[in-house]
TrEMBL record, chains A, B:
Coiled-coil intervals: none
Annotated Cyclic nucleotide-binding domain residues: 15-71
Official protein name in the record: CRP-like cAMP-binding protein
PROSITE patterns: CNMP_BINDING_3
Lineage: Bacteria, Pseudomonadati, Bacteroidota, Flavobacteriia, Flavobacteriales
InterPro entries documented for this protein: cNMP-bd_dom, cNMP-bd_dom_sf, RmlC-like_jellyroll
Species in which this protein is naturally found: Chryseobacterium sediminis
Gene3D superfamilies in UniProt: Jelly Rolls
Length: 187, 187
């Protein structure tokens, strides 16, 4: 499965075999079952996860116990409670499997070791961070300016396979509406 | 004024005089008056801006002509229509001076030249990108889960001097409420 990570990184920077061997040595392979948690609110966040196979939801639970979906992640995506991982604080979100999921796990210490030894990896992570920032900012704009129907259509256009795989109740929680409101839309 | 940029970068990575001289050679200094535009919707976005002095608003205007404030920027902040700058597309937002503003301007080509010659700058920009991503994601969470009063209080706590300097009508547009709603809150 490691070749998936190599293909993913090589879309942005070239790697030789020695470099990739070093990179691979910094990751741990783990398998999770549907409904298992990779990150739990209130606990430490040891890893950033690269998804090899499966589907995850990143959830923020508010004071009333209501779940808000901050994001989904599937094959070829990175996901974690990023502020908690990067700043080594406790998780304020949870990351849970919506399907059986295989991931490669990267500790922050190993991330730093990787970047110190292979500085070109910072270029790779910088591209990923810019895309994450752009996506998060566009979501803010979309939430401020766009109706639910248009936001659903944008999601469908950008990630058609995600919309197929995610239960409608979770899409509703991602869009910030009730399941009933979503089902009344002419989708 | 260039020393402000050096101090800013050296909070994250050390620089020697030669390195900073090269960095400085990649920036252009510009002065703008209150109400002038640095970025205009529909036009090219040649620069990313580092604010030396002053205050900017980043605005998205929807189809009905309503202005939504995506962000503010003041001393020591970077701002531009980032997707348009980085992907070299036309601006979908505008960036306008709320006060007379002095900036250092960085073209994308010069940004790439900088990172190629001084790879440690990618570490600097990576830190900035992570913080931008975290801030944008936290804003999404805040918009999904938090009332206007709490969002105003968060803003005041995080950026007290910003809240002092920005007109209340623009704070309302940032928070996504009318000026009247904001003025009825027990602030």
């Amino acid at each position: 499965m490691l070749h998936l990570l190599r293909t993913h990184i090589e879309k942005i920077i070239p790697l030789n075999d020695d470099e990739f061997e070093f990179i691979a040595s910094c990751f741990t392979y783990k398998k999770y079952k549907k409904h298992q948690f990779l990150v739990q609110e209130g606990e430490a966040v040891p890893y950033n996860y690269f998804v090899l196979k499966g589907l995850l939801k990143l959830v923020y639970t508010d004071e009333t116990g209501k779940e808000h979906i901050i994001g989904f992640a599937m094959e070829d995506w990175w996901e974690t409670d990023f502020p908690a991982y990067y700043q080594q604080t406790l998780a304020t979100m949870s990351l849970e499997c919506l399907e059986d999921t295989d991931v490669l796990c990267l500790q922050l210490e190993d991330y730093k070791k990787l970047c110190a030894r292979l500085p070109k990896l910072e270029h790779f992570f910088l591209e990923k961070a810019y895309m994450g920032f752009i996506t998060a900012q566009q979501r803010t704009i979309s939430m401020m300016t766009t109706g639910i129907k248009e936001r659903y259509d944008q999601l469908l256009k950008k990630y058609p396979s995600l919309v197929q795989r995610v239960p409608k109740s979770l899409l509703a929680a991602y869009l910030g509406v009730s399941r009933e409101t979503l089902s009344r839309l002419p989708l």
